[in-house]
Specification:
The complex is a heterodimer of chains A (245) and B (370). Helices cover 87% and strands 0% of the residues of chain A. Chain A is mostly helical and 245 residues long. Classes of the chains: A mainly alpha (245), B alpha/beta (370). The structure holds adenosine-5'-diphosphate and magnesium ion.
Chain lengths: 245, 370
């Protein structure tokens, strides 16, 4: 994470130098070199972006399924809630590199290690939001549903999940953005993606490569957040309420 | 229809029971109002009937069947339930909200649509306007109506209504109460109705069950409750103006039989007859009807002096207001006060003359009470 941040700061400084302080020849040369390199290698960059996206999407789907199920489960078994959330919290604070390295000892180098590590990282936001989203529903709504004779299963699917969805989706967004950043590190265990550019660039001391990788990661992160945010808004209760009027 | 025997609820971690040894029997088609101060166990009692709470002790029989032996889902599907907070589903349209129970019962779509629309009309919400709205786009009173419609849509024989009109302003509340009574007259459901408002209880009920601190104090008709409160607590609850409250309770036709007044004159009666009746009558007024027994007007002493003519019809003047025979005595009193006379003529829906009641009759009713 730290490395990534530093890269992004680097990138901004480079761009800033290039446009604002154009007297600095070195910086200007840097920018030109980077753009040239990106144009020349755009095929490879695009491939890696798609790979990165694929890794994130695949992982996100698994993470959503697992986390929502866990979240629902602990909303029914209240006593398990705090221990489970505690474990998720611990998983999230393990340093990414350590987690990835540990996965390699179990699953070996490759995609699987990356996916498992990313899923474990993204548990907390989705599990916690699913749990609180359900727990904080208006008790009167649940009582009237139950009192009218709805079964627990129907209440879950017809009432609880639809009403908790905005909160769950907020967790998914948090998880997705976090995952995109960490996925760059997954190249380290051979899971592919834009991380490859960044690590190669660091290895060879090739600045344009690092910058191209960082830009790619940022674009994916911003686009994801945007799509998830507006996608959710479009289908939210408030959106529909307004149409209903 | 509903029989409650020794019903007791002790919540976990509490020593004092929320409901204690409650015995209650509610006849089919009756509205039984549970009334009592906040926290006395009304809601708890109601939730034990549909098994939202499991009783700690005692039994509830629904049509003679122990309700613990009925599948709770089936039990609840056949008991309409309205809670004070209404609890509409905010992510569903009004139509979808009302269709909840039909959907649970897997009714065919056509039948559901028909019933939902019928119920929306019944509670005074035009389906054209409201069915696709979401609950947030409704006023408090409209939401209450949706809550009632949702509870009634599958025509359950029993309804549980927990302070259903608690969350609206007094004017809307009075309107909802009257609508409720109108609907109930047609539907005759067996209803357990919770309120903390004794006036609402008197107005809505066939029987009133007064509760305090988890115990049933008195279960009686409103009239008996007003005339013979079981103890200090009930007496305080019904308050000092019991006599006036009684007037809310009695319908005009109920006392009309008892007041034995001379027959009205037809419009072609002779002047002598009018003079004679004017002297004998305690009204100091003569009621005149036409040949079809429709109220034509009244004749006072001054009419006889001022006007000329042969028969009663020539002398009479129109009355400014009447009451119908299903009005309450309180309504009759208001008309008398408004017209500034000590009597009011009673007619039925078709304007047929039914009789006359006087301020004295009302006083008699009130006096019987004290
Ligand atoms: N779910 C519950 N858990 C514990 N105590 C409860 C619960 N529901 C109600 N009580 C208690 O039971 C008593 C009766 O409550 P309730 O039936 O809601 O009263 P009412 O409806 O007459 O206002 C109160 O003292 C209340 O605190
Ligand atoms: Mg209550």
């Amino acid at each position: 994470m730290d490395q990534l941040l530093r890269m992004i700061v680097d990138l901004l400084m480079t761009l800033g130098n290039g446009t604002l302080l154009s007297t600095q020849n070195e910086a200007r040369g840097d920018l030109r070199e980077t753009i040239d390199w990106i144009i020349r290698r755009s095929d490879r960059i695009l491939d890696l972006m798609v790979e990165h996206l694929w890794l994130v999407l695949f992982t996100l789907v698994i993470a959503i399924v697992v986390s929502v199920i866990v979240g629902i489960f602990i909303s029914y078994y209240e006593t398990l809630a705090q221990p489970v959330l505690g474990v998720c919290q611990v998983l999230m604070v393990i340093p990414s590199i350590a987690m990835l390295a540990f996965m390699v000892t179990i699953f070996g180098i490759g995609f699987t290690s990356g996916v498992v590590a990313l899923v474990l990282y993204s548990l907390l936001p989705i599990v916690r939001n699913t749990y609180t989203g359900i727990r904080e529903l208006d008790p009167a709504i649940l009582e009237s549903a139950k009192g009218m004779g709805m079964t627990e299963r129907r209440i879950l699917f017809k009432i609880k999940l639809p009403l908790a969805r905005p909160v769950i989706m907020a967790g998914v967004r948090t998880a997705a953005v976090m995952m995109i950043g960490i996925a760059a590190l997954a190249a380290y265990v051979g899971a592919g993606g834009l991380g490859e550019l960044i690590f190669q660039g660091i290895g060879r001391g090739h600045r344009p490569m690092i910058i191209a990788g960082a830009i790619g990661v940022s674009i994916i992160a911003v686009a994801f957040d945007y799509i998830l945010y507006y996608g959710e808004k479009r289908f939210s209760v408030e959106g529909r309420t307004r149409e209903g009027n | 229809m509903i029989k409650v025997e020794g019903l007791t609820k002790v919540f976990p971690g509490q020593t004092i029971p929320a409901v204690k040894d409650l015995n209650l029997e509610i006849k089919e088609g009756d509205v039984c109002v549970l009334v009592g101060p906040s926290g006395c166990g009304k809601t708890t009692t109601m939730k034990m009937i549909n098994r939202l709470y499991e009783p700690t002790g005692g039994k509830v029989y629904i049509r003679g069947e122990d309700h613990m032996k009925i599948d709770p889902i089936k039990l609840r599907l056949d008991i309409g339930y309205v809670i004070q907070e209404i609890g509409l589903f905010p992510h569903m349209t009004i139509y979808e909200n009302i269709a909840t129970v039909p959907n649970e019962k897997k009714w065919p779509r056509e039948k559901t649509k028909e019933k939902v629309e019928e119920l929306m009309h019944l509670v005074g919400l035009d389906p054209e306007i409201f069915q696709n709205r979401y609950p947030t786009a409704l006023s408090g009173g409209q939401r209450q109506r949706v809550g009632v419609a949702r509870a009634m849509v599958s025509d359950p024989p029993i309804m549980l209504m927990d302070e259903p009109f608690g969350a609206v302003d007094p004017i809307t509340r009075a309107r909802l109460q009257n609508e409720f009574l109108r609907i109930q007259e047609r539907m005759s459901k067996t209803i357990v109705f919770v309120t903390h408002d004794i006036d609402e209880a008197i107005k809505m009920s066939d029987t009133i069950a007064v509760m305090n601190e988890g115990e049933l104090i008195q279960h009686d008709t409103p009239s008996d409750l007003l005339s013979a409160p079981a103890d200090e607590f009930v007496a305080n609850l019904v308050g000092r103006h019991r006599s006036i409250k009684r007037l809310h309770l009695i319908r005009v036709h109920e006392i009309l039989k008892e007041v034995d007044r001379t027959e009205p004159l037809t419009e072609d009666a002779k002047k002598e007859e009018v003079e004679k009746q004017l002297e004998d009558s305690d009204l100091r007024t003569v009621i005149v009807v036409d040949r079809d027994n429709k109220l034509k007007g009244v004749i006072g002493a001054s009419d006889l002096k001022r006007k000329a003519g042969e028969v009663a019809g020539d002398y009479c003047h129109e009355v400014s207001d009447t009451v119908t025979d299903d009005a309450t005595l309180n309504d009759a009193l208001s008309v008398m006060l408004e017209c500034g006379v000590g009597y009011v003529a009673v007619v039925n829906e078709d304007e047929m003359y039914q009789g006359t009641i006087t301020l004295g009759d009302l006083l008699n009713v009130v006096r019987e009470d004290s």
